[in-house]
Amino acid sequence: LLLFPSSPLSPPPTTPTLLLSSLSVSHVDMCQQINRPAHHTVAFDNANLVVRRGQEFVLRVSFSRPPTPDDDFQLEFLIGSNPSANKGTMVAVTFGQRRGGGGGGWVGRVLEAQGPSLVLGVTPSPNAIVGKFRTYVAVVGRSGMHRTRRDPSTDLYVLFNAWCPEDPVFLPDEAERREYVLNEYGIIYQGAVKAVSQRTWLYGQFELGVLDACIHILDASRMPIYHRGNVIKLVRRGSAMLNSQDDNGVMVGNWSEDFSMGTAPTLWTGSVKILQEYANTGVPVCFAQCWVFAGIFNSFLRCLGIPARVITNFSSAHDNTGNLKTDLIFKTDGAPDKRSTRDSIWNYHCWNEVYMARPDLPDGMGGWQVVDATPQETSDGHFRCGPASVAAIKEGLLCHPFDAGFCFAEVNSDVVFYKRDRYGTLTPFRVDKRHVGQLVLTKAVGSDRPFDITYTYKYREGNNQRTMNRAEEYGCELDHSELPETLLSVYLGHDFNLQLEFQNQSDTPRTIQVHLAGSVVFYTGVEAHTFRDENLTVTVGANQTENVTLRITAQEYMPHLGSQLSLHFILTGQADDQSLSAIEVVNLETPPLMLRLSGRPKMQHEMSVTVSFTNHFQFALENVQMALEGPGLLSYRTHFYSVIAPQGSIDWTETFTPRIDGSKRIMATLSCSSLTQVKLFHFLNFISFPNCKCILIMNRRHLCTCLSLFSFVLNAV
């Protein structure tokens, strides 16, 4: 140690100051193994972190040296091509002395310090924009602010959060959250009200590329990014974009018999292939009908974190004229006047419900909301529908947005039968208040059983007068024709020796002039071909019942059946001042597929599946297409057979490797010009154990649950 004498010209001695090096970031770890289970996003087949808004996630930032309280840094989350703090597309999350400033509702905190690493907790706002964010760390130093370079591995997906009470999509029940957000499989009900069938649909919302495809749909719609945190605006835009009618959306609707330019709607097994193809090409995918639109929309909604389910309404009215009535017009002889009738009654129609708060409506109007992507009618200039409050529909509050009147008519309109005289005058002769919306079904929570939700949309008959009166105040046009009480009635039976049962409740005999029309129809109620057009005279004694049996043979309808499985019968009758009518839809059964699994039941171990089919018909099936899919097991695959001879059999084998445990399903379909709706699924459950990779439990189910008419009539012929 050397000592120097002080000099008046020398400064006094001071303690040496240690200058810290500038702080910089060496690594950012998104802590996926911690965050994914906490945010219920483990199933996403995606390399980036997926979280749900309104819930904290953690990340570890490693610096060049241990940070001090004087160091100033922040996390930045950017979305879109032109991020802006005032629009919420650039979010800065601060820590330390600046904690809470400039976060746009996002909150950050330091959870743990380990030398040069900090574990940070970030909670996005419950109303945060939904989409894919870029992540940066910005450090303020002596020479200004320095941000980390773009690292795609730190990109972050933010979804809606049904587990967060502050999120408008919050769903209180855990079992419902697992069903309506996390379940990759669903049952879509089809057929007719007295012959309900079902189809498994593979939503696949966690499959590779699906989340990016859903974000691509929003980008293609040109929806402003700053609106994508608003669930009402997002589902309304999604409803328009799922169809291609006016905005080059996901799918092209086709209700004809010609699917030569694409895939028949009955061949699809789920949403994954459709969404991937649209995202990769930007071209609408061919073809869809209502259950396909509903299935894809459900995948879109659940993928983004919105609780959603598919609904089937049997005897669903389609009000083309806007008067909220279903008008059926008949000629003088009782035959349907197809040219003049614009309204229709679909055997069934599928739409979706989403669960959300509705702060834009009065109290009690939140909860389940109708949204529909099938292009039926325009709403504010686009083919879309909803969200319409189910509670508002039940109460007849048709003044509330969006499209409540159209949805009300689908489940609750009057069917008015008109007869046109020789001068062209229309006279109502019967009003049916029960035919429309006879049954509304969705899949039950945690089960494949149907769940009847009819009375969430309407009161039971006899208890809904207040609803109908209120609906009329808001523009619903109900029928008030003073028609004489009819003492005659007729019922159409299910047998294919078609039973007509006439009841005369009067004290005098009646002679009834009857007209029966039988048609092959699309499930939308639109006629494909008439095969029976018959006039009958029936005499029924006083207070008596008369049964008439009509033989319906396969030779009549088989040449016109095509890809349809529905026969539609409508009967009208007149006896003096008494009128009667009846409508019946008969669904036909299809032959089954068979499915066999083989191989060692282990995760990441190759297995194989074989689909078998035998043509039991007396005619060849030509241009047969088959499809196979199982999310988490195998991607959508197809196979083509130019011909399957009468009594001929085919086997199609594919290999696959299970990638994730849990309940899984494989679905197979078959479709050709003369046979559709052939489908089958297998249920598989892969359960991981500590000492073995998995156990396979298999339960085969056939989905051929309509009337046993088809095979019976064919065998008789």
Automatic annotation (TrEMBL):
Q: Which gene does this sequence derive from?
A: f13a1
Q: Which GO terms describe its biological process?
A: blood coagulation, fibrin clot formation; nervous system development
SMART domains xref list: TGc
Q: Does the keyword Oxidoreductase apply?
A: no
What's the top EC group for this one?
transferase
Catalytic residue list: 290, 349, 372
Recorded E.C. number(s)? 2.3.2.13
User: What cofactor does this protein call for?
Assistant: Ca(2+)
Organism lineage reads as: Eukaryota, Metazoa, Chordata, Craniata, Vertebrata
Q: Which SUPFAM superfamilies match?
A: Cysteine proteinases, E set domains, Transglutaminase, two C-terminal domains
Under the heading Pfam families, the entry gives: Transglut_C, Transglut_core, Transglut_N
What InterPro entries does the annotation carry?
A: Ig-like_fold, Ig_E-set, Papain-like_cys_pep_sf, Transglutaminase, Transglutaminase-like, Transglutaminase-like_sf, Transglutaminase_animal, Transglutaminase_C
Provide this UniProt record's keywords sorted from A to Z. Answer: Acyltransferase, Calcium, Metal-binding, Transferase
Q: Which residues form the Transglutaminase-like domain?
A: 282-375
Q: What is this protein called?
A: protein-glutamine gamma-glutamyltransferase
